[in-house]
Amino acid sequence: MDYFAYKNEQLFAENVALEDIAKKFGTPCYVYSKSTIERHWHAFNNAAGNQPHLICYAVKANSNLAVLNVMAKLGSGFDIVSGGELSRVLKAGGDPSKVVFSGVGKTPEEIAFGLEQGIKCFNVESRSELARINQVAESLGKKAPISIRVNPDVDAKTHPYISTGLKDNKFGVEREQAIEIYQYASSLPFLNVVGIDCHIGSQLTDIAPFVDALDILLALIDELAEHGIQIKHLDVGGGLGVTYDDEEPPHPDQYTQAIAQRLAGREELMLIFEPGRAIMANAGVLLTKVEFLKQGAEKNFAIIDAAMNDLLRPALYSAWQNIIPLNAALPREKAIYDVVGPICETGDFLGKNRELAIAPEDYLAVRSAGAYGFAMASNYNSRCRAAEILVDDEAVHLVRKRETVEQLFENEFIPR
Ligand code: LLP
């Protein structure tokens, strides 16, 4: 459930008409709803019940400082994948002791930064990374808390680009090698083995693959105990899907409960979740304006002022996101449009074959754009990245200014 809805045919975010925001701040712009973020976060946090647990929001989904600050105030942890994301978490008031650091290519500098800040855990993806972390920890005179990401080889049945738990993916270590790699980790003097983790993919709409992966990890935890290696936390990753169109993913509390229930009898084991999309996707929209309507030989095009540089998901994953008018009361004729941006690529579309009743200058909202929207934006075609706004009841906060053209080339030099 989210707080974007029509009131008298005007689309609102909480208690603010989105058309007012579009007029005041210009388009394209992203708008996030604070109450929706909080609601989704609590859905995860409450459902884990009495099992000790930590929600580590996946920063990559949306790393705006104001968004991270909302999460930090809730007491959230964070899942990061770079030193840049750790800096953002710190700047936003996040607690480093609740940070887990994922990713296959952590540099020595990033590892040192994590150690100096006292993060909760490094989610390690390879034997060579273990050696590197051990070395950096030694140089700092610290012990590094580590977890090993096990690739459970389950099919998440999602888009191949966002499926991560299969044998041919670059992520994690093979389950068959896990025990041996844990033994190696335990033998390294500057590592402290604390956890086990996995992440099998993103936008999963079925609970079964999560539970299959969980069972594999629980069996490994028992096997590790037989080898004298005690695992204190189990990190099940992120990946819970959302409704973009007609998908019916499990509700966060169904998902969280299904997992927590499987841990019966393991009251000591801390459960970590790394949700990104399930918290943020439907907590944000992208506002855009219709520039022109153009009739092609076979198609009608609605040319809008947002493009693939603002929202890459349709171009990259053929993702479908709903596109709706901000003012549904305008007298317009319906037609079928491809909704396209101004970028010089055929792949620059935000929607295809959409029935819309629109005219030039009308405003539209692309729904479900709060996750992997702005976070994946680029400056392709020297387009300035959009403004970002956070709505809190009736209050409207500009949380990122629209980029300026000067900013685009401030780091460039012309050799003399
Ligand atoms: N943990 C790890 C280790 C991850 O790699 C990811 C996402 C997450 C957590 C959060 O997953 P979520 O709960 O958001 O599904 N850009 C793509 C999604 C890429 C996801 C990458 N990893 C998209 O727009 O669909």
From TrEMBL:
Keyword terms: Amino-acid biosynthesis, Decarboxylase, Lyase, Lysine biosynthesis, Pyridoxal phosphate
Protein family: Belongs to the Orn/Lys/Arg decarboxylase class-II family. LysA subfamily.
Protein's job: Specifically catalyzes the decarboxylation of meso-diaminopimelate (meso-DAP) to L-lysine.
Signal peptide span: none
InterPro entries the record matches: Ala_racemase/Decarboxylase_C, DAP_deCOOHase_LysA, De-COase2_C, De-COase2_CS, De-COase2_N, De-COase2_pyr-phos_BS, Orn/DAP/Arg_de-COase, PLP-binding_barrel
Encoding gene (name): lysA
PANTHER family: DIAMINOPIMELATE DECARBOXYLASE, GROUP IV DECARBOXYLASE
Name of this chain's protein: Diaminopimelate decarboxylase
Residue ranges occupied by any Orn/DAP/Arg decarboxylase 2 N-terminal domain in the UniProt entry: 35-281
Catalytic activity: meso-2,6-diaminopimelate + H(+) = L-lysine + CO2
Pathway the protein takes part in: Amino-acid biosynthesis; L-lysine biosynthesis via DAP pathway; L-lysine from DL-2,6-diaminopimelate: step 1/1
Domain Orn/DAP/Arg decarboxylase 2 C-terminal: 29-370
Cofactor: pyridoxal 5'-phosphate
